Every structure is written in structure tokens, then in C-alpha cells.
Amino acid sequence: MRCRSHARACAALATLLLAQPALWGDDAAAAKGAAAAQAAAERDARALGWLLQQGVRAFAAPPVDNPPPADQQRQQIEQHAKQLERMFQPVLNSELELIRRCCGGLEPAARRQIMAAGREAVAAGARGFTERQFNGRLGRDDFDPRREIRVRLEKAVEPLAAPAEFAAYREQVERREARRAEAARLSILARVDRQLDLSADQRRKIEAELTRSWRPQWTRELGNRGDMRVNDYPPAPDDAADAIVPHLAADQVAAWEAWCRAAGARFLGQGFNLQIDGQGIQQTDPWWSP
Amino acid sequence: MSVVPHRRWIARAVVGLLAAVVCSGIAGAIDDDVVLDAGPDEAGMRQPHLIDLGGNFDANLFEQHGNGWVLRSGPGQEPPGPRPSPALERARELGRKRIDRMAAACALTAEQQRRLALAVESDARRFAHEVEAIRTPYIGRQIDMNDQAGQKAWHAFQQDVAKCRDRLRNVFHEGSLFAAATASILDDRQQASLAAEDEARRSFQWRAMVLETMSKLDESLGLDQRQSDAISAELLAHEPPLRNDPQALGRIDSNMRRQLVLMVLAELDAKPLRNAVSERQWRVLSLQMNQGRAMRSAIEAQGLLEKPR
Fold first, then answer.
1. pLDDT by residue (tens digit) across A136-169?
2. Which of A289, B66, B98, B202 has the fewest beta carbons under 10 Å from its own?
3. For residues B15 and A17, is the Cβ–Cβ distance under 8 A?
């Protein structure tokens, strides 16, 4: 884009310069009237100065891909986020399902309040997601619309539910996180097993080590990231190397190193395990709108 | 007046210099805007309807994971003349990996490894010979996909590649010299170790698939621990006959793994599952199970399950 603006400025400058009879014409024609030549020279000097200024600006300006005006972008984000809310709705519905199972004693007024908070949470999740899409920041921070919705719901439920019911809900949330962590560990291990042919004993040791040194960011392995092929390899879970490598045999270490060189996951960036595919409970439970 | 021409010459020089800068700027700018694409793909871009079946044969048999198809367009880039098939090397490599895995599982002696390597070589050569017979007629053959005859030829080509893919999946399987030799070369203790190792790997891979899918169901259904335990227990108790060689397992993507688990779930008695979840959850779960059920033929075609004996 910057090159095109350079080209336009340069082309205009060249056209003006090449069209100067006072400069390119013969001496006789140029000497017809000193006053006229003086006026023309002054006019051209002003034009030349302006063009040079524009040209210099064009060269000095940072590359900008014609950013749309702020209002226009904001409008686009809002429109897109609105459309996306439909995809996030099942996330809300499934969380409400779990809340209902744990907090069945919620009063009708409380349910309405939670439902309203849920709708706001969906809108906030969709907006946060869309903003990152538009700004090219998607996957560059730890924003997760699913978590956004759940955290907001949890905050809404806490003051409205009986303490015992809220504690039961919290316990289920923690257990779900634990299940997710176990699934992620096994997902990492299964990929290593497919690639390096681990023995049963190696799998046991590595699984124990992954549990001991668990890192929450490993849950991104649960997305479809493992389906990628990089240099004909699946991504190597090299951010879990400390838990894996000490339990490999020498030939497996060599294969692991080659794998990491060819397709190390750390080179793939943080990634974004979203997979918001709109699957889930589609219809909102009428229990929430008494 | 006499200085005017002199000044004009200076001005001409300045302008000439500026014009040179300007023109080079324009040229540079134009260069930046043009994306030049050369090399082998150039022909493909010019004639995307022309397909070289010889080149596509190896790409689809050896470079493609799963049952997908890659279609490399454009006339063939290969020099004329026969080109050796990578079939023999690929089969040898798979055989070597098998022996390494067996050696790690049941401590093979050097003599046992030598005899197994001979069996691998024999199977690999037989496989390469069979593949070559199918592949050779396609070498140097170019079809036009805009033409009905070309489309028909592509369809026949796909069937032939699928046949070779299936053969590759089973190159050291039942009916191979390697399978027969393994039974006679390994002693009872080694065979038991190998079977136990295979069983452990199969169970582990199934457990990983189940937990991965349960995590997805957690997301879509809002399961509590009791519900999750009930569904997981049913699935873990009904392990399918997974092919557990890395070649088969490496081909499965996360969606196919999920569909496989849902297929198994769909083929279980629905009553306990139905009782474990709410009406709202069941509506979603039964829909997903139906999707899994419908995937059986695709899952079998991928060679993910052992064939029933």
C-alpha cells in the first residue's frame, strides 16, 4: 500500500517536471517574456514544493493499510459480535444446565437475574473475541470467551444461591477443570506415543510427570491443534519436554529432537483453542425465565 | 538575461536528477506490487485442469494422511522415463519400526531380529511389486479434468490408489509373511509380552480418545461429575478393536477420534445413558451419537478398526 502511494506521488511529480516547457523547451521560446517566465517559475516552484512535501511524507509515513475510520470499525465489530453471539449461546446454555443441577433452589427472581447476567456475558465474550479478530490479537493473549461467560455467570450466581448450593457448583467447576486437565495430559501423551512408540512403563512415568508438573496452558492440546501437519509431522508438544524427555530411550530422544526441530509447538505460538462450533444445548431452558 | 540560460541548465540538471529518482521510485513501487510466481506451480496455475496421474499417485498414496485426496494440477514436471516407486522404502521403514517396537516390548535376540527383517524384506518387495503393477500405467499419463473421459480416469485412479492404501495398511498384517514368522519365531513368553504391550497401548489410546471426547461433551452438555463418570465408564468398558499400529493411529484426527467414540456410544444400550442425563442434554447427546453412528463406514474405510475375523 505504501508503495502505491509512493508511486502516485512520484508519478505526479514526474508528470509535472516533464511537462515544463520553460525547462525542456528551446532558449528562444523561453525568453519570450521575463515576467511571464518569472510568474510561471514561482507557480511551478510552489507546486514542486508541495509535491516534494507530499512525496517525502509518503516515504516517511508508516505503512498503514488504509485503516477504516474508528467509527466504521467499531460498527463492524458490533455487527460481527452480534452475529457471533448465536455461536456462544450454547456455551451459556450448557453452563446454565450445570448451575441448575447444583443450584435447584434458586428463586425465580434470582434466575431472571442470572439469565440477564448470562446474556451480558455472551455479548461480552462475543465482543472480546471479535475485537481480537479485528485487531489481529486473537490467540495472542489468554482471552477465552468460554471462560469469560463462565466467570461472569459464577459472579452472578454467588450472591443469589444458597451457600451450600454455590459450593456444590464450585466443586463441579473444579472437577470439570480436573477432567479437562487429565484429558489434555493424555492427549499430549497419546501424540507422543503415536510418534515415538512408548512402552507401557514409559507412558506410566510420563503421565505421572505431566500430572506432577501440570501447566494450565497444556489444555490447548485439546483443540484441533494436534491435527495440524508441520513438515509432515504433528506439532511436537515441546513445551512439556521436561516431563517427557527424561523417560525416553536414546533412539527416542534422537527422534524427539528431530520432531521438535521440524514441528516444535513452541514455534506455532500460543494458539487458540476455541472450537466454538455452536454445538451444544441450543434452546434456553424456560426454567431460567419464569 | 544572460544568466537565465545558465540557471536553466542548473534547473535542468536538478530536474533530471529528480526525474531519475522519481522514475526509479515508480519502478520500485511497481516491482513491489507484482507477485511473481515461478517454478513448478506455474504450469499448474496456467492449466489447472490438466492432471499428471503419475505424480499424483505417489502423493496420494504416501503423502496424504487419512482418506483425503490431494490433486496436484498442471502437466507433469517429471523428466520422462520410469521413476522408482517409493513403495519399497516406505514398506521397509514401516517394517523396521515394527521390529524395533517388538524388540522393545519382548527383548528379541539378534537372530530373531535377522529372521524378522528377512520377512519384512519379503513382504515389502511383494507390496512394492503389487503397487508398481498398479502405478506403472499411470506414469506419464495426463488427463484433462474438463473432459468427461478425464473425470472417469480420475475416478478409476482413485479406486486404484484406495486399493494400494488398503494394501499398505495391511502390509505386515494377517496373511503376511511377517505375521506368520512372528508366530513361529517368538517364544511363548515373548508373544505374551508382545500381546500385553499391544493391549496396553490399545487401551491407553482408547482412554485418551474417550477423555478427549468427554471434555468436548463437558463443554456442550454441562455435565456434572456423576454424569461424566457414568458415560465414561460405559465407554471404557466397551473398547472397540482399535488398530493400534502407529500407522493407523497417526491417521486419526481429533474429529475422527470424537466420531469414533460417539459411534461406540451410539451402539451401546441407550437406556442407562438416557437415565444419566437430563432431557435437554439428551436431545444434544442423541444428535451427536447419531452423527457418530453414521460415521461407521468412514471409520472402517480409514482402517481404524481391526477387521472382524
1. 777 667 788 888 999 999 999 999 999 999 999 9
2. A289
3. yes
State which H helix or E strand residue B149 sits in. helix B148-169
- ipTM of the predicted structure? 0.72
Confidence of residue B45 (pLDDT cuts 50, 70, 90): low
Least CA distance to A29: which residue of chain B?
A: B5
Instruction: Indicate yes or no: pTM above 0.80.
Output: no
Structural domain boundaries of chain B?
47-185, 192-301
Q: Which of residues 78-97 of A touch B (CB under 8 A)?
A: 90-91, 93-97
Name residues 122-181 of chain A within 8 A of B (Cβ): 146, 172, 175-176, 179-180
Contacts 24+ apart (CB under 8 A), A175-179: A175/B224, A175/B225, A176/A98, A176/B218, A176/B223, A176/B225, A176/B228, A179/B211, A179/B214, A179/B215, A179/B218, A179/B225, A179/B228
Asked if residues B240 and B259 have their Cβ atoms less than 8 Å apart, the reply is: no
Cα separation, A126 vs A120, in Å, equals: 10
Residues of chain A in contact with residue B219, where contact means CB-CB under 8 angstroms, are: 91, 94, 146, 280
Cell of B39: 517454478
Cell of A179: 477432567
Lowest mean pLDDT: which of A236-250, B81-95, B280-294? B81-95
> Which residue of B3, B8, B207, B278 to mutate against A (max A Cβ within 10 Å)?
B8
Query: Shortest CA distance to B67 belongs to which of B205, B165, B167, B172?
Result: B165
Q: Where do the structural domains in chain A lie, given as residue ranges? A: 2-60, 71-161, 178-268
Residue B31 burial by Cβ neighbours in a 10 Å radius (0-12, 13-18, 19+): exposed
CB pair distance less than 8 Å for A182 and B211? yes
The closest of B254, B258, B253, B262 to B289, measured between CA atoms, is B262
Helices (H), A32-69: 34-60
Q: Do B208 and A186 touch (CB under 8 A)?
A: yes
Residue of A147, A227, A284 to mutate when probing chain B, most B C-beta within 10 A = A227
Nearest one of A123, A31, A117 to A78, comparing CA atoms: A123
